[in-house]
Amino acid sequence: MPLVTTKEMFEKSMKEHFAVGAFNVNNMEIIQGIVDAAAKENSPVILQASSGAIKYARIPYLRKMIEAALEEHDIPIALHLDHGPDFETCKMCIDNGFTSVMIDGSKYDFEENISLTKKVVDYAHAHGVVVEAELGKLAGIEDDVNVSEEDAIYTDPEQAKEFVERTGCDSLAIAIGTSHGAYKFKGEAKLRFDILAKIKELIPNTPIVLHGASTVIPELVEKCNKYGGNIPGAKGVPDEMLREASLSGVSKINVDTDLRLAMTGAIREVFAEDPSAFDPRKYLTPARAKIEETVAHKIKDVFCSSNKA
Ligand code: G3H
Ligand code: 13P
Ligand code: ZN
Predict the structure, then answer these.
(1) Domains defined along the chain, listed by start
(2) Pocket perturbation via mutation, ligand 2, pick of 24, 100, 295 by most ligand atoms within 8 A of CB
(3) Global pTM exceeds 0.90
(4) What angle do CA 73, 76, 79 make, to 5 degrees?
(5) 24 C-alpha vs ligand 2 centroid, how far in Å?
(6) Burial of 257 (0-12, 13-18, 19+ CB in 10 A)
(7) Closest by alpha carbon to 285, among 304, 298, 267?
(8) What are the distances in angstroms from CA 108 to CA 86, 134, 163, 228?
């Protein structure tokens, strides 16, 4: 089947209470690991590329590799721009076959975010492409947010309703306590499910997106560290919380860090065990297998999207 937008998979996710995994891609092994897992689980999947990933892999390569994935597998696959920084980048992706784009206006004030998002929505919709927008700020522990600032960074539910109505965006990324990278929490992991519930109450038909949602799987971190890495004190969102989010109205869950850790740990292990190895297939084969295993676990045990293709 050809590339799809996220429209149908999100409608199904809201009706049947599961989340679609959105995995960041930038090379062949990552793409293959993800789609092989999704196909085995018979799950829809979103492949997303950031502007950094596009710069690295280059659009024609990304597109052709994803075309190859569609040739091999009969599952719904959407190609999405992750964190589009401006209108021009969104337009470039829309003009080059992406079926979904994110315009990340979260760094702007409310009105500016609305006008930028609306501009992208108008162009995207005229070309059959869907748009994810973001409202709220994803602060990590490195941002050192104090308690009185906390409420200001979470997404305000009333504002979310107004934002969606005024922009016409197709899905909305919200801030409820997640953050990007491997260091998400200092102490206990905590997400504001009360805010999610309020947002779902006010805009029940808008698919909700969770960024910064890697678990920072302890086994993957340990493997990196065991074989020469230095990633101390890393902490992510526990599987139980992501499962709860998947069952409570989150339609798209973004994962990049866990894939980076899976790949890096597998490669480090090969080099540590066999310093004479220098054939890339020798270390990229286990790296791809670890990505497939990691994605399959998320789809099956966490996002509940197996057999939802
Ligand atoms: O949310 C950001 C993603 O992890 C992509 O990261 O901009 O380094 O490609 P990147
Ligand atoms: P993680 O860093 O938690 O994997 O988040 C990825 C993400 O949100 C991509 O947009
Ligand atoms: Zn993100």
Answers:
(1) 7-302 (3.20.20.70)
(2) 24
(3) yes
(4) 100
(5) 8
(6) buried
(7) 267
(8) 11, 10, 13, 40
- Give, rounded to a whole angstrom, the gap between the first and last alpha carbons of the chain: 12
pLDDT tens digits for the chain (309 residues)? 899 999 999 999 999 999 999 999 999 999 999 999 999 999 999 999 999 999 999 999 999 999 999 999 999 999 999 999 999 999 999 999 999 999 999 999 999 999 999 999 999 999 999 999 999 998 777 677 666 677 779 999 999 999 999 999 999 999 999 999 999 998 899 999 999 999 999 999 999 999 999 999 999 999 999 999 999 999 999 999 999 999 999 999 999 999 999 999 999 999 999 999 999 999 999 999 999 999 999 999 999 999 999
Token pair listed for 5: 């937008």
- How far is the centre of ligand 1, averaged over its atoms, from the C-alpha of 184 (Å)? 15
82 is catalytic: yes
Question: Is 113 in contact with 84 (CB distance < 8 Å)?
Answer: no
- Phi, psi dihedrals of residue 42, rounded to the nearest 5°: 50, 50
